[in-house]
Every structure is written in C-alpha cells, then in structure tokens.
Amino acid sequence: MAYLTDFVKSTLSRVVLGKELPSFPYNIGERVESFDSTIWALHKGTKREDNSSVSILCFDCVRQRDKLPLARNAFKKFRTIRHPDLIKYIDGIETEAVIYIVTDAVTPLQDHLRSNLDPSLIRWGLYKVANVLKFLTVDASFIHGNIRTSSIFITKSGEWKVGGFEALSSLKEDQPAILTFAGLIPESNRYAPPEVRKKSWNVVKEHELWSTDTWHYACLIYEVYNGTFTSPEQLMTPGNIPTEMAPFYKNLLRPDPKTRPSVGDFLDKGMQAKGFFQNDLIQVVLFLENFSVKEPLQRDTFLRKLDMQIDRFPREFCKYKILPELVHALEYGSGGAKVLPPIVKIGADLEEQEYQALISNVLVKMFASTDRTIRLSLLENLGGFIDRINKKVVNDKIFPSMALGFMDTAPIIREWTVKSVLLVIGKLSDKVINYDLLRYLGKLQTDEEPGIRTNTVICLGKIAKYLSDGTKAKILVPAFTRSLRDPFAHARVASLMALNATSESYDKGDIAARIIPCISLTLVDTEKIVRVQAIKSLDTFVKRVEKLVETMPDSAVVDTGRESPSGGIRSTTPSTPSTSSSETWAGWAVSSITKKLVTGEMQPQTSAQPGANNNSGRSSPANTPVPSNTSNGMSLSNASAANGLQIATEGRNNSAGGRPADGYSVNRYSSALAAVEADEVANDGSGGWGNEDDVLFTDEGFEPMEQLEPSTPSPMPSFATMKPTQARAPLRPSTNANSSTSLGSAKASSRLGFGVMDDGGDAWDGDDDLFKSLNMSNSNAGGGNSSNSRPLSASLKPLSRSPSTSSNASSTTTPAPATGFIRKEEKMAEMARKREERRQRMAEAKEKRKDSSLGAKRI
C-alpha cells in the first residue's frame, strides 16, 4: 500500500511539473532504460531556446526520500566543481518533489561496452578517468567514492566523462557524505574495498585519500574489459586486460590500502615510453589540447603525421574531438596552413548541417586572410570542401577574396588561383563569370610567367560552356588566336586544343575569316608538338565549316522572275551579266564609266543615237548602232547617247514616281558635267551663264540671286520628240511650283544650257531624268513659288567652255564632231581661266542688279 501511495505521488509530481517549475527552460524527453543502477533516471532533453540536445538527471524526492541526501550532495558538487573530464553541468533545479540536473548530451558507458567499443577509445577513456581522479584526490583533496561503469558517461565525440557525485566529499567538511551516506548507494558493497567491507566507511579517514578510489578504478578496468563481476575474487584474474597493463592493474588491487599506489602513479606508468597509454590516439589528443604552446617545428611534424593517420581513428572521435581542436587552431592562427588538410578529410564525413556549423564559417573567414601560406593551402585543398559550401556564399564572399590571387605578386598564388576557377565556376553567377572573371583572365593571358599563360588558356577553354553566347562571340576567338602567337610552345598548343574543344561555339564566318587563317600559320611552327596539334585542329574546323555550309543556297541572288522581251521569264544570275537586268549590274557599270568620263579618260562617240533601250519597254530604232564598252570586263550593249553614254536611266528606274532616290549620286553628277559640256558647245561666251546664274559661283560659295519673274511654263517635251542633233537655246526648268518637270522659256533656258532640244524627233535620252535627278525646282504640293528651291548650278562647279565651240543662243548649231577629249591637265587649266572670266562677268552683273527694281532674295 505504501508503495502505491509513493507511486501516485511521484506521478502527480510529474503531471504538475509545468506549474511547479514554470521557469524550467528545457523539455524532458524519453528515459534511457539501460541506465537503472543508480538513484538517478537519465532522460534525453532539449533546450527550448535553440532546440539543442541535453541530458537530464532526474531524482524523485518522494519515492526515494531515504536517498535524498545523496541526490542533494551530487547536485551541490555538480554546481561547485569544474574539470574538463567531469560531466559538464549546464543547469539544475530542486523542488520538494524533484531534482533536475541538466548536463551535456551524454550516454551511459554501459551502452557502449555492449557494442564493442574501440580499443583505442577504451584506453583514452581510462586515461581520462585516471586524470580526473588524480585531480580530485591530489589537487582538490576529495574522495569520489563511486567510480564504476554506471558513473561514467560518454559524449558524442567518444570522450569519457565522470559523474556519480553522490558520495563525492572532502574530509574537511562538517558531515562528509561518503562517511554517512555512501552505504546507501546501490550495490555499494560489491564495489567496496576490503577494509570498508571489514569495518565501515569511516575507515576511509585512516588511510590515504586515494586508497578507496584506487580500488574502485581497478574495478572499472575489469568491467570495461571483462564485464560485470560478482565477487572480489574475480577481480584477481586479469582476463582480457591488455598484458602491458595487467601488472600495474594488479597493484591497484592490493589488500593493504597503505601499499596501494595512487591512480596518479598508475597514470605515470602508463605514460612512460612504450607504456600502455602510449598509443597514437592519446598522443594526438594530448598534443592538440596543448597545441598553442608547442613549437612551430613540432606543430608541423605533428600535422603531417596526423594527416597520414587520421583515417585510422574512430569516425565519431575525429568529428567531435579532433576536428574542433583543429578548427580552433586554424581560426586563431596557431595551426597555420598545414591544419587545413586534416580538416578537409574529417569534414568529408560530416552531415550538411554539421558541416555548416563546424567548418563553413571558418573557411570563409580564412579566405580573407592576408597570410599567403593559408591562402595557398585553401586553394590547394579547395576541391575537398567547395562542394559543401552554399552557392551564394561562394559567389558573394569566397570569390571576391579568392580573386585577389589573380593580381598577387607571388606567381604560385596566381597559378593556383587560375586552377581554382574550374572548381568554383559552377557556383558563380552569370554576371561574375562574364565580366569580373574574364577581366582577370584577360590580364593573366599576358602574364610574365609562361606556365600561368598556358593555364589561363586551358582554364578559358574549359569554362567556355558557362559563358553567354554574346560573350563567346567577343572573347574566345581573340583570346585563343592571341595565344597562337605566344613565344611559349605549350601555350600555343593549349590554344589550339582550346579552339578544338570549343569548335561548336563558332559560326562559319568566324571559322573561315578568323580562325582557320590563324591556325594555318602554326602549320609551319618551329615546334613539332605545335604543328601536330595544328593539323588536328585545322581538320576539325574544316569539317565544321563544311557542315555549316551544307544548308547554304547555291547563290545569294534571288530570282526576280522578270519577264524577258521575248515573253518568257528571265532569271538573274550574277555569273552571266548579259542576261541580268540593268538593276543588278548596269548601275555599277555606268558609274564606273562615268567616272572615267569625268576624269577625261574616255573618248566620246563620233555619232550617237537616241536611247536604244530603256525600262519603259521601248525598243531601239532599226539600224541604230549600239556602242559597247568593255571597261572592267563588262559589256554595255544598250547604253548610247549624245556623248556615247546613257547616263540618267538608272536614276529614273530606281526611284519611286520617276524621281531619284538620291539627289547627289555619282551618276547624276556625271550627267550634269556632260550637260555642261554640251551647253558650252552650243553657246557663245556670254550666253551660257547669263545674269542671275552668273552670280551663283563666287570665290567663297553661293551668292544671293535676284528673284526673277516666273516665265510662262512650256510643256515638257516627250522622250520621243527630243533629239541631241539639233541645238536650240538651252532650256531651264521653270520656277513654277505647279510643275517641277516643265521647262521654262527660251530666255530662261538660255541661262542654264544643260542640253539642246530639237523641234521634233527623238530626244537625248536622259535629259528629263537629269533635271528631275538634280531637283532643280522643289515644288510644294499645294502650288506657289518655292523660294527655297536649289538651282542646278548650285550643285555643280563651273566648267569651262570648249574653245572649239561658239554659237548664238537663238540659232541652231550642230555639235562639232568629237575628235577626242582634252587631257585632264589642259582641261583644268582652261577651267581655271574661264572661272576668272566668269568672276568678272558676275561682278558686272552685281552692278546691274543695283539699278534693277527687283529685290534680291537669297536662295
């Protein structure tokens, strides 16, 4: 009945825990069932603030009221004693119902012993227990009195931590718990030394402080290697205890407490040369714990050894014991660059969350270090950890620091930085790749070290797939072709190989015009390795361009489907100009010939016929001789005019509405010059440039011209009625805005003699088009006089009259037969002389205008 009452009270205390302990910031989880041989119940727990794992020792004050002094003593000692090898106290609370002690997350040693604990960890654990007992009994003058497997806990790193503080006491206390309450500890009689079993716990005061703990430590060694014992006699048989440890173990079990060695002595024996505590794991951990006070040479030797042996140590121990020590040494500068390789090796086994918490932040911080050895070590080991770091962290934090290596004065830093690009390229943004990174690589392509130049080309070829299409077109060809001229042979080979590897990135134009010509130069390179690679690369690009041009048409000229004079469809082929329309080639041919005409290199025809053929569909008269011109290898079979050349046809055909598209083309300028020559032949010295028109040419430019009264426009003669053989007073376009193509009166025409007109018959084909081409009268659609019209004279330079021609403006004159053009030099001299005479006439005209009643108006 009493048991049932205690159980109900215990249950109620747990139910109302939230009310009794409102400020307890931990969640109590499930109980560890294997931990059942002490006064405590071990629970897993979490901290509410950050959800971190903890362990909680719970004592039920109601059910175990008789053992309450032991729990209270343990709670007190947890709060007052600190040592690295004691279980770490975090928090605790005591009420009338319960006592909670919060510690680091631990598991009972008993659970690990059942799973065949690693022998190296067992020795390391025994070393740690011996070390803490030495501290308690020698340095702090305490007696633990409860060393056994149930009072030892193991952290996630595999380290042993000592708990079980129920009997921990100092004999200097008023009422030491070990003397009064040690017998209440479960199974205390089984672990009690012989002198205590004979008398009581009070006998402890009569012997050395360590005598009791030495016996208990021997019991722990036996249980670790052989399991649970039932009688003290079993302890005398070493069993599975290592042979090098067995003799010292037996000394710990001496019946006489005065002859028992202390745990400190046992520890010293084990740490001697070839002692039982002299193994690699213990030596590594002890060195790391004192890493900061070691000499630099000792550190380097140790780290090299650790890097080779790290794979032999237990995984959990490396992750949670060795790794934190190495990271601490790296972060605070005591480890140097050689600490990084073992860190990278251990980090490979970490989970993602653990990696971010333990390693990532420190590595990012180290990239900003100014120590070249650390930066070099980071670059050399980059492949071991870069995949474990977040993409954003690499792009925003690591690469900006790493990029400083591109400009470092140490060549080895620059070289390793280039190599590291291949490892980080997948985590960089497009902006960083296409702008920042390429700018650095461009500078390194002209580095003074040939090896760095070579690696830069290789790097650029391998990261080409990450570049945008626009960047590829602008960067790759110039970069690789530049390296083809590198004096270092291996750089040239690397460039050829890079071109070969990126051949799919180029279009046919770049391949044919820029790449193949550059590769061809290396076919005769002085180095054989370059020539061999050049042949391979050239073959690749030739096949590539053959594939690209397969889909190209046979000709770039599109069939216009025009109707031929015979009624069929006429095709246009650039290779046969005789069958092409005038639009495809005649314009070029006429321009070429008129250029010769202007420069005086072409002889005029002795006889000319009206336009033999034009685009209006008219056919040439019968028996009309067709002059030909073979200039530049092309035949002009349908171009005949008064000067042996049909000038203005192209301008008329290629413009909308019969007007030229360009008012200042070469053909029109040439037509104007030919018209001027004809005008000077048909007029005497005073009739060709009369009154207002004379003032158009001055020394410095155009002068204002008097506003003339518009003359009555006469109809524009048709092409069928114009002849070049009969000369009349030269015609001038009317300034009437109603008709930009009409011709003015004879008087006005005589002032600008750009052609002659017959009363009937065929006209000089092209004159009408010539006037329109030169846009002599810019009329408005609404009619009226256009004051801003530009006369034809304004677009021409004055030409001299031929001395062999003279005529009256009112009489008809037959053009003199052309026996040959004046040479260019003579013509220029004649023009200069005539220009001076014209200036004198223009000065006289200005004097006459002063007396005129018409006002002057600037055009």
Give the key terms:
4 domains; single chain; mainly alpha; Transferase(Phosphotransferase), domain 1; 859 residues; 31 helices; disordered C terminus
Describe the structure in your own words.
With 859 residues, the protein is mainly alpha-helical. Helices cover 44% and strands 6% of the residues. It contains 31 helices and 12 strands. A 5-stranded antiparallel β-sheet has the order 1-2-3-5-4, with helices on one face. Strands 6-7-8 form a 3-stranded antiparallel β-sheet. A two-stranded antiparallel ribbon has the order 9-10. A hairpin with a 3-residue loop joins β4 and β5 (98-103). α5 (119-139) runs antiparallel to α9, α26 crosses α28 and α28 crosses α30 (767-774). The model is unreliable at 1-20, 561-821 and 853-859 (pLDDT under 50).
Query: Taking Cα atoms only, what radius of gyration do you get, to the nearest Å?
Result: 55 Å
Distance between the termini: 132 Å
Number of helices: 31
Strand content: 5-15%
Question: Structural class of the helices, strands and pairings?
Answer: mainly alpha
Main pleated-sheet profile:
5 strands, antiparallel
Spatial arrangement of strands, main beta sheet: 1-2-3-5-4
List how many beta strands DSSP finds: 12
Low-pLDDT segments: 1-20, 561-821, 853-859
Tell the overall outline: elongated
Write the CATH architecture name of the largest domain.
Orthogonal Bundle
Q: What is the name of the CATH topology of the largest domain? A: Transferase(Phosphotransferase), domain 1
- Give the % helix: 40-55%
Mean pLDDT: 73
The tally of structural domains comes to: 4
CATH class of the largest domain: Mainly Alpha
CATH fourth-tier homologous superfamily of the largest domain: Transferase(Phosphotransferase) domain 1
